[in-house]
């Protein structure tokens, strides 16, 4: 998991957590498949929190449990797709091949796994931009996080725009 090692270098190591592989059982039962291993490994290390002050991710036993959020997002987006199918090119879980929610960013975008391969470690990432249109990232979860941070920019107090500082804040 070279991507996970790169993220640890960028974000540093958080305080030790006491997560268990069993934490994922209910989520993976709901999804009907294992989730990508680097996604689970990242969340087992860092937990629920915010990456680079922008991207929010959820652990099954975090302050905002992943499974509760998945169910809510899948239902909401599936209902929106029924009303406006042209705006949503992909179905949402639990439909076969449906997108699987894993996080969002403060810009209003939702991030999903597209289960396009029997091997979850080969799934792609789909970002729904404000519920209109989508972008696909052909890489792992950790590769997506690194790319997300690399393209993210912030404005400082003086109005200068510069790259985001890699960080992780637990929630």
TrEMBL record:
List the InterPro entries: Knr4/Smi1-like_dom, Knr4/Smi1-like_sf
Q: Which SUPFAM superfamilies match?
A: SMI1/KNR4-like
Q: Which Pfam families match?
A: SMI1_KNR4
Which domain of life does this protein belong to? Bacteria
Residue span, Knr4/Smi1-like domain = 20-145
Query: This protein is called what?
Result: SMI1/KNR4 family protein
């Amino acid at each position: 998991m070279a991507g996970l090692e790169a993220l640890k270098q960028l974000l540093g190591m958080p305080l030790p957590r006491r997560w268990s592989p069993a934490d994922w059982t209910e989520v993976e039962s709901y999804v009907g498949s294992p989730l990508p291993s680097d996604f689970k490994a990242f969340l087992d290390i860092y937990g629920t929190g915010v990456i680079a002050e922008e991207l929010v991710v959820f652990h099954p036993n975090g302050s905002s449990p992943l499974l509760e959020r998945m169910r809510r997002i899948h239902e909401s987006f599936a209902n929106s797709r029924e009303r406006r199918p042209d705006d949503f090119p992909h179905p949402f879980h639990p439909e076969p091949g449906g997108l699987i929610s894993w996080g969002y960013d403060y810009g209003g975008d939702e991030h999903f796994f597209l289960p396009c391969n029997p091997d979850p470690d080969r799934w792609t990432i789909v970002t729904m931009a404000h519920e209109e249109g989508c972008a696909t990232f052909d890489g792992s979860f950790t590769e997506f996080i690194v790319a997300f941070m690399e393209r993210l920019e912030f404005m400082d107090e003086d109005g200068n725009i510069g790259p985001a500082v890699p960080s992780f804040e637990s929630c």
